[in-house]
Amino acid sequence: MNTSHSCSFYLLLLLLISTWTAPAQVNRLNNTPRPTYGGFMSTQVPVFRSKHDSLSLIQTDAQLLQIYKKEPVNQKKADSLMHLRGKIYEEGILGFRNIYYAHSGYLPFDSLKYITDKSTVHALSIVSKQLKELPKEVLQCTNLEVLELVNCDLRKIQKEVNQLTHLNKIQILNNTSTRKLKLKKNTVVKSFAIRGDHPRAIPKSFKNFKALTKIDLSDNGIVKFYNGARHNKKLYELDLQRNKITLQKNAIRPHPYLERLGLQYNTIRYVPSSVKNFINIKKIGFNHNAISEVAPQIGQLKKLEDLSFYNNKLEAVPDGIYNIRSLKVIDLFHNRIFKLEDKISNWQKLHTLYVSHNHLTYLPTVIHQLPELHEIYAYDNSLKELPASLCQIKKLKVLRVNINELKELPDCFDQLNDMEELDLSDNSFTRLPAGVFSFPHLKILAIVDNPWNDQLKQELPAMVKKLRDQHVSVHLDSYGDEPEQ
To answer: How many whole angstroms separate alpha carbon 394 and alpha carbon 372?
Structure first.
């Protein structure tokens, strides 16, 4: 590229990069917060190894900007600075943290003094205050429904908050207190969310907030499983996503009331035996961890319906999981599983089977013994054939087996009269049973990238047109002129 274009390009590049590298430039150039997990508004800034690293990056960026403002550009010096910059990134930045912002739709606390009738306030945000407890002005908002505290030093939520009979939700974003938040008795609040870099400020227990149905402690840097909600009898959901939980201490205490648990995006390698303590659990998410083993005691979860291990390191389905007869949905996407055992027949209530992105070479013939199975997602494996018993799954509506090594379908395949979505793309099919094109409830048919024989190539345009006239979405490779939509 010529010098002027090079200058413009690098100036733009530096501007874009600088908005997320140097704290001073974040404040100056990138003040627009974005919603993070949970819908909370924040920006990300780097955590530097030292103040020296932070200053070095700012100085390096400033020097680069000056170089590219001059013509001709001293490319040798610019390359040297870019190398230095890369080294600072690699060695000087330890990670990133969120800076939180008030919700734009909530009334700022400082504006409350201008409100004569405080009963009209339904959502209130308090920002950057040193608070031993919630201000008395909050208690005057008798119809308050949502209370948010951002970058505050809060030590206690007093018992008088119980007078706010409409207060449904409290969310605390970055409580800077060095002490654990104390919660006095409350029978009103149903939802409590905390975000921040100070896990030490999280309440030791939520048992005084007796009406809670959901607690969200995601993004707090928590390293061990949080047991402070085990006494909440109405608690339905506990969200511990995006922390640093390992479960190595096997210290999950009994949670007799909990039904939903989120442990996604942690650092779990092994699911311990104490998982059995969620005796009434119905849904658990272990997605995006590094799990390679699961204790057999998971099979004692007799009410578990939805279990997810998306993106882990399982090489086989753990034996204990085969014993969970209540399962309705199991997600094993993105693991290293080579085989499904015949013990899947225990999953008599299973509705949806997610096993894509693994190393399966076949599906068990006993799969027809799953009477409630509606959906099978088994794409991106090494399947060489589908069992004829598949045809006996009369409720099957979705079958996605694209990106495999399939050459033909079972002769009985056209018996799957409830089929709505079928994806056979990226396989080795040369022909298809005629019934594939006449399922009465078909909505989506994908048959892209298969080496069709000459006869089927000639017949495809007419069959595809007929399906599209019936409002079926058809995806195929054209081998020439694909019929018009």
So the answer is: 9
First-to-last alpha carbon distance for the chain, in angstroms, is 42
CA distance linking residue 310 with residue 354, whole number of Å: 9
Three-class secondary structure of residue 468 per DSSP: helix
Maximum separation of any 2 CA atoms in the chain, in Å: 81
- Is the domain of 109 the same as that of 208? yes
Q: Give the E-state strand segments of 10-151 in sequence order.
A: 34-35, 41-48, 93-100, 107-108, 123-127, 130-131, 146-150
* pTM of the entire predicted model: 0.86
Question: Where is the domain boundary, 212, 244, 278?
Answer: 212
Structural domains counted in the chain: 2
Q: Give the tokens for residue 329.
A: 């949905």
How many whole angstroms separate alpha carbon 319 and alpha carbon 314?
12
In DSSP terms, 44 is beta-bridged to: 98
Answer yes or no: do 114 and 148 share one domain. Answer: yes
In this predicted model, what pLDDT tens digit does every residue of 290-345 receive, in sequence order? 999 999 999 999 999 999 999 999 999 999 999 999 999 999 999 999 999 999 99
For residue 461, with 0-12 CB atoms within 10 Å meaning exposed, 13-18 middle and 19 or more buried, which class applies? middle
Supply the range of the domain harboring residue 13: 3-32+46-95
CB-side neighbour CA atoms (13 Å) of 425: 16
Amino acid at 104: S
Q: Is the backbone peptide bond immediately before 371 cis, with ω within 30 degrees of 0?
A: no
| Residues with Cβ within 8 Å of residue 471, at least 6 apart in sequence | none
Q: What angle do CA 411, 417, 419 make, to 5 degrees?
A: 95
Instruction: Establish whether the linkage from the previous residue to 46 is cis, with ω within 30° of 0.
Output: no
Same domain, 108 and 147: yes
Identity of residue 20: W
Give the CB-side neighbour count of residue 41, counting CA atoms within 13 A. 14
DSSP assignment, residue 64?
Answer: H
Tokens of 467: 């399906």
Q: Classify residue 339: in a domain, yes or no.
A: no
Radius of gyration of the chain, Cα coordinates, nearest whole angstrom: 29
Which of 184, 212, 240 lies at the terminal end of a domain, its last residue?
Answer: 212
Bridge partners (DSSP) of residue 353 are 330, 376
Q: Are residues 117 and 144 in the same domain?
A: yes
Residue 18 lies in a domain: yes
pLDDT tens-digit map of 427-440:
999 999 989 999 99
The answer to whether residue 108 is domain-embedded is yes
- Beta strands 93-100 and 41-48: pairing type? antiparallel
